[in-house]
Amino acid sequence: MTSEYRLKRRVQFYETDAAGIVHFSWYLRYMEEAEHALWREAGISIAPAGSEIGWPRVAISCEYHSALFFEDEIEILMRVATISRKTIRYECVITRGDDRIATAAMTIVCVIKKAGEPMRALPIPTDVIERLGVAVDA
Amino acid sequence: MTSEYRLKRRVQFYETDAAGIVHFSWYLRYMEEAEHALWREAGISIAPAGSEIGWPRVAISCEYHSALFFEDEIEILMRVATISRKTIRYECVITRGDDRIATAAMTIVCVIKKAGEPMRALPIPTDVIERLGVAVDA
Amino acid sequence: MTSEYRLKRRVQFYETDAAGIVHFSWYLRYMEEAEHALWREAGISIAPAGSEIGWPRVAISCEYHSALFFEDEIEILMRVATISRKTIRYECVITRGDDRIATAAMTIVCVIKKAGEPMRALPIPTDVIERLGVAVDA
Amino acid sequence: MTSEYRLKRRVQFYETDAAGIVHFSWYLRYMEEAEHALWREAGISIAPAGSEIGWPRVAISCEYHSALFFEDEIEILMRVATISRKTIRYECVITRGDDRIATAAMTIVCVIKKAGEPMRALPIPTDVIERLGVAVDA
After folding, report:
1. Is A57 part of a structural domain of the chain?
2. How far C45 CA sits from the closest chain A CA (Å)?
3. What is the pLDDT of residues D23-52, one digit of tens each?
4. Mutation for testing the B interface, residue in A62, A107, A109, A112 having most B CBs under 10 Å
5. Hey, is A24 helix, strand or coil?
6. Active-site annotation holds for C17
7. How many domains are contained in chain C?
8. Which of D137, D6, D7 is nearest to D82 (CA)?
9. C or N: which end of chain A has fewer Cβ atoms within 10 Å?
């Protein structure tokens, strides 16, 4: 069972804005990158080709403590905080060396998508339940 | 004094992802677009060329109620919720016709940026205080 | 028959990078925005929900003559340059007032996408052929 | 002297669009990522903090041979093709295993940016000339 993942990553130029720092929308993408790496670490893909199961986001929050700059080397720690019948909640900390850059949380829901029908929430499939675990001190 | 802005906008193809819906990171950009339009409506720019004053984001949150699709016509209602000495907090509702798509909040802080120095929080300048007002029922 | 479209648009903050100007990748998105507006003007959508027909890009080129800045008001002129059996080629000029900002070209191909099969090129459907025309002096 | 760089990278979900494939604008960002990695390999940064020297793009072209999908592992081969007094031209090939995904080219120009003045082209600085070389068979 995988319950957390530490993704190391470098800030790219196209992630910065005219204020000279990483645009705040990118933190959500960093979080998603670490989430998907966590799933791969667990041996599963969050979006296998042709799957009718999807994982839209239902809530996110982020507190920005410090700015990020071009070529900064950062670490995104993504942890599974809670797993309910149909949702998963992650907690995330972004750091650059000893600097705490941001703390964030994200909740996703399991849905089934059929052509021409609205998405409908679904209990999390067994193969996901068996591979993702809640982080001990989350 | 301007306290709210309604931005009408169409979903672009590059905002969608392989789930066939708008990627969740885009909602923050929609919010920012409406924020900057609100400032222009108030007669000011949030980032005039050469200014040492900046407005980094310190906190954001978003609840996603429904998905958005390519070419959807949406409205982003951005309102000034509170103004403190150094920060501004907005509340935001995204709708598509009668559908409530997302509700969000964002707090920004006024900073001074000098070359080679870290950003430092600053009281909000008078010309901004005079032009932005808190929305009545925010 | 629609053969060209002029899209007016303002540069958004998230389109800029740490050089203080619009990131060069955004010009392709501006071009796509104008392309899709051209199709809507012609009464068709380039990606109707559930369609098996798609229009991947096969070639693009862009020459950048001048930089774009936050809040610049720009015009993207998109014109149909040639229509062959399976492809459409556009030419594009981006301007800010009298300033020529960029000139670009893009070729797209009509494909059919079926689940589990590779995309396959296809003659352009009649309803598209009937609505898009080649610009006179393109 | 560094004349080429092979960047290995995985396709992220936020790089895909509603057609289920990587949006064509992302190929330019892949190219830029590999370019900046090439510069770091050469011991230099293309955008050091506080520098007045910049490298805007003046021309790009890309031919798309095949689509990219979520979680694909790709390689971006970036090579210095020509160095003139003020410009550098790169050639780029993107592959996924044995599949040729895209071939591209990009020309950048060296400029000086001073506050309140337009950017002005400049001969390439010596420390860059000494560290970047033209790839043998480019």
Report:
1. yes
2. 17
3. 999 999 999 999 999 999 999 999 999 899
4. A62
5. coil
6. yes
7. 1
8. D137
9. N
Measured distance CA(D100)–CA(D65) in Å, rounded: 7
Name the residue among B12, B36, B40 with its Cβ closest to that of C33: B12
Let me know if residue C134 belongs to a domain: no
**Cα atoms in the 13 Å half-sphere on the side-chain side of C37:** 22
> pLDDT by residue (tens digit) across B66-79?
999 999 999 999 99
Q: Angle C101-C106-C112 (CA atoms, 0-180°, nearest 5)?
A: 150
> So what's the pLDDT on residue C138?
59
pLDDT for residue A138 is more than 70: no
Question: Token digits for A97?
Answer: 């060396």
Nearest by Cα to C80 from C25, C39, C121, C24: C39
Count CA within 13 A, CB hemisphere, residue C34: 29
What type of residue is B108? Answer: I
SS3 D14: helix
- What pLDDT, on a 0 to 100 scale, did the predictor assign at position D136? 84
CATH code for position A118: 3.10.129.10
Q: Does the structure show a pLDDT above 80 at A137?
A: no
User: Is the CB of C25 less than 8 angstroms away from the CB of D24?
Assistant: no
* Domain-located, residue D68: yes
Spatial CB neighbours of A48, under 8 Å, sequence gap ≥ 6: none
A31 lies in which domain range? 4-129
The answer to whether residue D135 sits within a structural domain is: no
Q: Cβ distance B102 to B27 under 8 Å?
A: yes
Q: Which of residues 52-81 of A touch B (CB under 8 A)?
A: 54, 56-64, 67
Q: Which of B48, B30, B18 is nearest to B96 (CA)?
A: B30
What is the rounded distance in angstroms from the CA atom of residue D73 to the CA atom of residue D75?
Answer: 7
Tokens representing residue D74 in the block: 């790709």
Map residue C35 onto helix, strand or coil: helix
